[in-house]
Amino acid sequence: YHRQHTKETQLSKFNLTETEAMLGSYIKVLFIRDPFQRLIATFLQGMGSSPSFSSFVQDVLDSGTHNASVAWKPHVSLCRPCLVQYDYVVMFGFHREELGHLLRRAGLPAGSILPEFTDTQVQWTYRWLSEQMFSELSVQQKKQLSRFYRWDLAAFSFSSNFLSD
């Protein structure tokens, strides 16, 4: 896009004509991750000051979506997938397949550029962690989390939902 802007410039700072021109001139890629995996990763990285996963989840729920940290805020409210027509949506856990396709489409040699991904091990690890950590949550917390992430769960086909019980 021809207009000069810095990386701090937000899309909302442009008028509608500029926004449409800018979005039309880029290949738009959205990287997403299962919201429950994001919660677990955030907790394990110590980004919350809570002593247990259950109390961390309660802090997240108490913060609400408007005051939520970017680390666990729903994707739909961050990336506006209903307003921005993304060319690619790359889901965490499928990087090898999806990034290879994206690089080939861009005319780049995918095999020599991509790092080694351990997608299968990552998926298995998060499945196990999710089962363990979500068993700590009350039925009420599970219902609230399901509501908190309802638009992400509706917009993207995440493979597992540990809140169904």
Number of strands: 2
From the helix content, strand content and strand pairing, which structural class follows?
A: mainly alpha
Helical coverage, percent range: 40-55%
Order of helices and strands: HEHHHEHHHHH
Rounded to the nearest angstrom, the radius of gyration is 18 Å
- Relative strand content: under 5%
Mean pLDDT: 80
With strands numbered from the N-terminus, the spatial order across the biggest sheet is 1-2
Shape: globular
Q: Number of helical runs?
A: 9
Low-confidence spans? none
- Please give the domain count: 1
Distance between the termini: 48 Å
What kind of sheet is the major sheet? Answer: 2 strands, parallel
Q: What would the keywords be for this entry?
A:
165 residues, globular, mainly alpha, two-stranded parallel sheet, 5% strand
Record the SSE blueprint:
Elements (H helix, E strand, L loop, with lengths): L15 H9 L4 E4 L2 H10 L8 H11 L11 H5 L8 E4 L3 H11 L4 H4 L5 H16 L4 H10 L1 H6 L10
Parallel strand pairs: 1-2
Textual characterization of the structure:
This protein is mostly helical. The protein has one domain. 50% of the residues lie in helices and 5% in strands. It has nine helices and two strands. The protein has a two-stranded parallel sheet. The longest helix has 16 residues. The termini are far apart. The model has no long low-confidence stretch (mean pLDDT 80). Keywords: Carbohydrate metabolism, Glycoprotein, Golgi apparatus, Membrane, Signal-anchor, Transferase, Transmembrane, Transmembrane helix. It is a single-pass type II membrane protein. Its EC number is 2.8.2.-. It is found in: Golgi apparatus membrane. InterPro entries: Carb_sulfotrans_8-10 (IPR018011), Sulfotransferase (IPR005331).
